[in-house]
Amino acid sequence: MNATVYGPVVQIGVANGPVTIHPTGPREAVPVVRPVPGTDQAAPEVFVGRTREIEHLLARLDPDGESGAATASVVAGMGGVGKTALARRVSATAVTRGWFAGGAVMVDLHGYHPDGGQVRTAAAFGPLLAALGVSRERVPATEPEQAAAYHHLLDALARQGRRVLLVLDNVSSGDQVRDFLPRSAAHRAVVTTRDTLTLPSVRALELDVPEPGEAGVMLERILHGHSPGDPRVGREPAEATRVIEACGRLPLALGIAAAMLADDHALTLAELADELDRSATREEVLRHGAPSIAPVFDLSWRRLQARDPSAARVLPLLVLNPGPGTSTEAAAALADEPVPVVRPRLRRLRQAHLLYQADGHWRMHDLIRSRVRGRTVPGNAEESDPQAALSRLLHHYGRTATAMAGRLTEQPDGPGGPGEAGGPGELGEAGEAGESADRGAAEDAYAAERTGAWEWFARERPSLLAAVPMAAVSGHHRLTVDLAETLFGVLDTAHDTLAQAAMAQYAVDAAAQLGDAEVHAGTLHRLGSLHTASGRHDRAATAHREALRVCRAAGDRKGEAAASHLLGSSLLDAGRLAKAVTAVRQAAHIYRVIGHREGEARALGTLARIHCRTKRYDTAVGVHRQAIGMHQDAGDTGGEGAELNNLGLTLWLAGRKEEAVVAYRRSADVSRTAGHHSAKAAALRNLAMHTGWLGRTEEALAAQQEALVTCRSLGDVAGESAALSALPVILSRAMEPRAAVAAQQRSVEACRAAGHRRDEGLALSQLGQVLAMTAGNLGGAIDAHRRAVDIWRDLADRDAEATELKVLAGRLAEAERNSAARRTGEEAVAALNDTGRHAEAVAVEEWLATLPATDHETERAVPPDAATRMPRVYTTPKGCTGGGLPFSATVGAVVAHFLDGPWWLVTILTVLAAFGWGTCLTSLVFLSAGVFMVCAAWGTWWSAAGLALLLFGAGSLVTGTTEAEPGGRESDRDRQRRP
């Protein structure tokens, strides 16, 4: 049997004979986002007319234009009519006029790709963030976080008056682009499509083919670009009109026709028009919504075959490349020819308007791609064989990626060898100068090689990511595994965790075909770690469980222990604690049997975390200390430092605060000595938080500052945000409530600016605590907790949402907004039950039963912008006056008393001191002032005021609230910030 198969294949029997498979089924395109250059920087292109359309679109983009203008403008028209060229021209003009200080970017969504490989909406948020100036390390890992960070960034830029322009090209449906559209009226979007889109706040512009006169000018200018001064269009106007009409006045077809004229100076316009008329058929007229591209292309193809068959042979091979564009080197691999041989052929195809160049890659219009697919040129059958060409291309990507990755890991060579400046011995001044020059040259060469490697990976990223599934489908199993592992190591694929997981799954399937248990287990662990990073803990556990099965079947005891440990960690993350204990104990046992002390210590550390989650703190402390001893015996200072930090957290939760502080100090010292900077920063953050809580302000601020500097030097944005979050606790305990609130607000803003939605939610939750317990601002606290709830819902984190709803219900009850507290509490109960926290749900239900039936205070309406603005800081009597007033009032009261000042002055100063110091001390001072007034003014009406102070003080003692310790909420949510 001989067969050629296009698309996905399922083998249901035995095939006898050669079967050529072309994996051309729908594949997801990798988004490529480019900045829009100004007109002075844009590549030259022939653009004629469209004056009315340009003015129409510019009026919508103009910041001084009509108020209430739609944020999005849709340019609709048939394929090849010039929609993208119009969008490029208008956006470049707007950039040149300085209308979009926040940035202007363009992304091709491939909505009409003949393979069906559209860009998935969620996959483009990460690249969009990067293109709009967000550094690579600040782009969140998960797609929901990226989407939220994208809109937060646009909102922030709008508030700063920095407008953004988005050009969304080749959109096939409203669903593909709806989530990209800016929500702020300041920003603008231009969308190109071949269809009628249903989108909110848009205005559509239907783009038709150019007028006959404009089409004639376009044909002549394109021809003069190839052949300056060519007189044929001006000399034969009637025949030129025939060609223009045969091309349907379609700019794409006019470009191909002009290329044919430039290629054959003897070809008259009348002859070209006759050939085009003979090529057209009714079937082709109705195809693709572009009536004239089929006959024009077919004629161009026949002439190319006759005049330059070697160039014609390259064109169908380029369709095999999985990326949006093909480099010259990749084209050479497809054609199995050297680069110097292939480059002129590619230029010939560009001259024929069948290719165009962008960002160093050769690209083709999707209408041309659909016409090229499946065409062949008679000649060398092996050279034109698609399957062989695809194999050459994939191996080219594999070899080059490995070589470029090697450049990123190798060390610079000096005169004395790798990494050395020179050999031993005495050198004179001339020798030293020569050595310095050689070393400088070597370092420059090394830096240039690294830069070149990074630039290559950045350019080829779309093709490389798409090559992995193509290699898997075409049966290149070893190449699939190796290429995927290389890309995980060097490419910034964190912008799209789903794409990473899909690539890892291809590697898993390919590794299973190789029969190598170690490789297979490694790919499964990689898949599991990606699922863990994106919060899909059950899927992570499934991957690690399969790796455990593979290692057991192969008799790999060390691999079995590692898989069992990772499985236990995933089960812990998923909240399945009993099964997690079983898996981790099994890992520790295997490590003990094979004598792997470091592995056993790590497993015991995880076991201690599980005990901590179940509030068996004393048991957890013992296991932590056992693990620390094992790390010390093995000389593993990194593991020792990390485990000491975990021990500190457990001791703090157990109420053994001084021991916890000692453990944090030891952890920071060990990690500092060993050069483990991330572990040192983690210990310092906890040391700052908890010494601040204990009132040791000087030590806390020193630890917080060192942690902040360390995280910034490492580029650890999440760690930097965590270090900032310690400052409000330190300041609040130092009797600086205003500064504490301001510091926590800065922490929230830092997380939002970085696009870290999860950290922003944690910071908002802590802001609510600081506002309520330090500043007495329940309204602001409620607003902060509600915004945190919204974030957890956006991230689909039901567990965090349940905890936040529980806290919010308590805050509402404190504000005597009982109806809202009851509704929120019921939502918390549902969320707690959904996440398996049934005991907590029962406790909340019991608490709800104690709430009064009606509100004691009319619930105030929440302003419509409450979800986006920062809560105000109100100065209220409950501890928000700072340290100056209470201290001054206290001193004044003492001085007035000993100098026999009037009793009413002593009383007033005492009351002011009470308001300043706050909490329990307030009650005691009110009681003292009441007793003083009653004794000093008995028999006068002032004694009544004294009795009132006595009653107020007594009531404060009964109803006074206590502050929550840092880590108290963490015990409920240690999955959010686990050691």
Question: How is the secondary structure organized here?
Answer:
Elements lengths: L2 E4 L12 E4 L10 E3 L15 H11 L10 E5 L6 H14 L6 E6 L16 H7 L11 H17 L4 E8 L2 H4 L10 E6 L8 E5 L5 H15 L5 H4 L1 H10 L4 H13 L5 H11 L2 H4 L7 H15 L1 H10 L9 H8 L3 H13 L4 E3 L2 E3 L2 H7 L8 H4 L1 H24 L3 E2 L2 E2 L10 H45 L3 H14 L6 H18 L2 H17 L3 H18 L2 H17 L3 H18 L2 H17 L3 H18 L2 H17 L3 H18 L2 H17 L3 H18 L2 H17 L3 H18 L2 H17 L4 H17 L3 H17 L3 H17 L3 H12 L34 H15 L4 H15 L1 H18 L5 H18 L8 H5 L7
Parallel strand pairs: 1-2, 4-7, 4-8, 5-6, 6-7
Antiparallel strand pairs: 3-5, 9-10, 11-12
Helix pairs in contact: 1-2, 3-4, 6-8, 6-9, 8-10, 9-12, 10-12, 12-13, 13-15, 14-15, 14-18, 18-19, 18-20, 19-20, 19-21, 20-21, 21-22, 22-23, 22-24, 23-24, 24-25, 24-26, 25-26, 26-27, 26-28, 27-28, 28-29, 28-30, 29-30, 30-31, 30-32, 31-32, 32-33, 32-34, 33-34, 34-35, 35-36, 36-37, 37-38, 39-40, ...
